[in-house]
Amino acid sequence: MADITSDFAIDYGLLHEVQSKLRDLASQAGAGAGEGSYQSLGDAKSSERRRILGNTNLSAEFNYFYSFSKRRQGKAKDGLNELAELFKSVSDVFFDADSQISGSAGVMGKSIGLEDWKNKKEAYDDWVQDKKEWDDFLKSIGASDYFEKNPDASIRMVCNADDAPGWCQAWRDADDPPLKPGDAPPKPPDTPPTHYHSETTTGSVDVDLVLDKDNNVITETSTVKTNGQTFTTSTTYEQGAPKMVDPPGDGKPYDTRDYTVTTTGGDGKTSTSTVVINDDGSGTMKVVQDDETTQYTRSGPTAEWEEVVEEEDDYSYTYA
Questions:
Q1: Residue 212 and residue 182 share a domain
Q2: What's the number of domains the chain is made of?
Q3: Which of 164, 192, 220 is the last residue in one of the domains?
Q4: Which of 30, 309, 310, 315 has the fewest Cβ atoms within 10 Å of its own Cβ atom?
Q5: How many Å apart are CA 46 and CA 25, to the nearest integer?
Q6: Per-block average pLDDT, block size 10, for the chain (320 residues)?
């Protein structure tokens, strides 16, 4: 694949600087409704304002002007904050994508080698169990010595021969004799893989897993360093072992464990997402960042998370 990084690059630092400046402008706009005597008069009760201005019509017109001005300033503040958030989102999305391209995509669980280790361990443990059952059976019918001397022999062929050993009758009388196991599969390391490290052209990728006693992932953390920035995501599952649901039809199995995701972006800011999954795959998600909380819901395991927007009354003013 051709190297396109020199042709397409995102300056994350610049994007964050732009969004910071926009928030400063929003803060100034937020204070634009006035200060001092002007603000005191605008926020005063109608009776107090009439007393100060000495005229009912003048008080009403001032109230209209102040309310309209404050409303426009508020819209400017909201718009600037939305634009700042857009710049931040673009920065975070591209940084996240760049991090994935740098090597973090898919390293959790399967690619780190944990699932492969678990499969090999299961296969080896099954073989050990089958071998034990076979050896115990041979001992019970008195055939252990024979198969120690003839490890490649087939018990079926031996016992069907004209000169079959005497213990073959016990084999024939057995209700459900175990089968002779094949060769032992490769034995995996005693400890599972819980760390992954990779050097990239722009930084590095590290993945760390925390397992329970049954080798289920209960916490997974990825740290991506690229272009001088660090992006860290840590997911903690609240209920230990996976709680898989296999939906009817062609739907893919999904995990119903609740979990918490803590993300630290390139700007050093941290957000925490608390996710609650129902048995039908629907759920809720609460995202907290910078003391701001946003709620999301989804209708099913493959549905998109949708923000819960609270309806607000339109701003209105009142004539004195």
A1: no
A2: 3
A3: 192
A4: 310
A5: 31
A6: 36 50 56 54 67 65 58 54 55 47 45 86 96 97 96 94 94 93 94 88 85 89 82 83 84 87 83 91 90 90 85 48
